[in-house]
Amino acid sequence: MGKITASEAAKAVIRRNTEEAGHSPPPEPIRGYFADSWVEPVFLGSLWVLNALGALLSPLPLVKWNRRVVGVALFCWSAGGLLLVFFSAMNYFVHIGLLINTSDSF
Questions:
Q1: 6-to-12, 60, 81 alpha-carbon distances in Å
Q2: Residue 60 CA to its chain's centroid (Å)
Q3: Short-list 11, 92, 95, 96, CA closest to 47
Q4: Whole-angstrom Cα distance, residue 86 to residue 71?
């Protein structure tokens, strides 16, 4: 899982604003402001790096117990999970805003 999320982080930053990496159209209320900048790919890349680092470090305490490694893995999983929840909630409401901004029936 760590290698997969690390490759997703690299894809988010390298491919930047292409359709494969989740390009957001300009009419979206929040993400549309960052459609042509590096803000969104760097945020998504750092989110995936946190999750990848937590996944790669989590099996290490099974071999030799190290409190520092457990703390770093716990921080990576907690921070990455919390950011992912906030990003998912924002993404949900942004898509609703996109429907309202681009639809003629509302």
A1: 10, 18, 15
A2: 24
A3: 11
A4: 22
> What six digits make up the tokens of 79?
């921070």
Which residue has 């760097």 as its token pair? 42
For 1-11, the pLDDT digits (tens) are: 667 777 776 76
pLDDT tens across 60-82, in order? Answer: 877 888 888 888 888 988 998 89
CA neighbours closer than 13 Å in the CB half-sphere of residue 19 = 0
Number of domains comprising the chain: 1
Residue 90 structural domain: 2-102
Percent of the chain with pLDDT over 90: 5
Q: Residue holding tokens 């957001």? A: 24
The CA R_g of the chain, rounded to the nearest whole Å, is: 17
Residue 101 has pLDDT above 70, yes or no: no
